[in-house]
């Protein structure tokens, strides 16, 4: 690690200015307006008192807490059996099940909501069949139930991924010791296995809670408006950016995101989850008895059918001529895809441009921040990392409101407000996805020995040449993985862009999907556009896995 050079100081200052302009100032503006009396610009708590006195806002707050908590519960019901069965037993197809379990994340949740309505709504496939066969319906998608169901199906992979990793890392000798003392079955899971895997579970559950609490589009599409994120959006879009109540709600959203992360970290503090060996120990994966295999496969298939239902419904809808009050579409057509490619391919083109630019910004900033933190002694360098990562705690709707308030008054020479330009959408996407690229670049640089750079400099290479010829090529796998992750997630981002799109010509794919899904007539083309979005994100996810795998093989071969 070397002392900072003038070039590194300039780089750090440039990054700090960028983060200040497009993250810190917009968020600070939201907080400032929330605590300012309208018209006098003096500090006040009256806006929060008004919030507390308004039944709609209090009901929306508790609805959001309830929906988020219940989504964690339902998501856990999906994730726990899949994680436990695939990590603790000899189970054919375990890798396929884990891969299929990841699929819900590559579909925007609000798109899945429409497909879920067609399958599980009051007049959806399942309820029509239940009514015909047994004479009753189940309110899967009624009110808050629908939001919980859709969100749990979409976000349960966060728990599955983290819990599976935690279960694999447990020293199996501890389970063997418990069995030798007479502990087995569900008691073994409840007293030994699950407590040791608690860090992974809490990490996934806190992510689910925060994501659901901040989600905007899914409740709106299900016509559930008495939740906080929809209320923030509706206040700003219907009353205007001068109304302080939208900003108060935004501050509450930020506070709840930070609180959820803090509670999850406090829950783990002061407890020891360490084991002697990571995934080692005495026990091998247990072979199931025949009846256990039948039950396990039945449970896994049922869960997979539920969590893959949005993809099945979306695919059917994209080819459907008419699908209403019938278990399956009345007929099939390719007309929706023809309309999308003929009239609406602009959404795809805009998305490719916006997500590519956002991904490039993210990997440039991520690489630069990682280098400054790990390779220099620059004072305050850690603050760059913290500031960039803080974007995780900022809901998309809050960032959108902040951009409108901050940049709408900034006008170009021709009088056009800065907030109406498409480049602002790119900047919002870049800020929202910067933490993902930063972590990938940070991990890649951590695996490069400083001695390689020192050797190059001892042979006469300048610091810039060393970075260009040594560091960046060795980081290529991490940089590419960071770009693909940022690109794939930015391609389906809606919460921030919904606030910032000013004209259809500048709209990205997620916005087009939302507009299509508003009406019954547009849902066929919207589903076709949704299939394209899913394929786009799936290809990016697959490319990311290939890049990481090749990078790991290359490092292994070079040792």
UniProtKB/TrEMBL annotation:
Signal among keywords = no
Q: Keywords for this entry?
A: Cell inner membrane, Cell membrane, Membrane, Transmembrane, Transmembrane helix, Transport
Which InterPro entries does the record cross-reference, listed alphabetically? MetI-like, MetI-like_sf
Chief localisation class: membrane
Task: Enumerate the subcellular locations listed in this protein's record, separating them with semicolons.
Answer: Cell inner membrane; Cell membrane
Q: Where are the transmembrane segments?
A: 12-35, 65-85, 97-120, 146-167, 188-210, 245-263, 294-320, 352-374, 386-404, 416-434, 470-492, 527-548
Q: What cellular component GO annotations does this protein have?
A: plasma membrane
The membrane topology term of the UniProt record is: Multi-pass membrane protein
Q: In its UniProt record, which GO terms are filed under biological process? A: transmembrane transport
Q: Where is the ABC transmembrane type-1 domain?
A: 61-260, 348-544
Q: Which family does it belong to?
A: Belongs to the binding-protein-dependent transport system permease family.
The protein here is known as: Iron(III) transport system permease protein
**What organism does this protein naturally occur in?**
Chelatococcus composti
The organism's taxonomic lineage, starting at the top? Bacteria, Pseudomonadati, Pseudomonadota, Alphaproteobacteria, Hyphomicrobiales
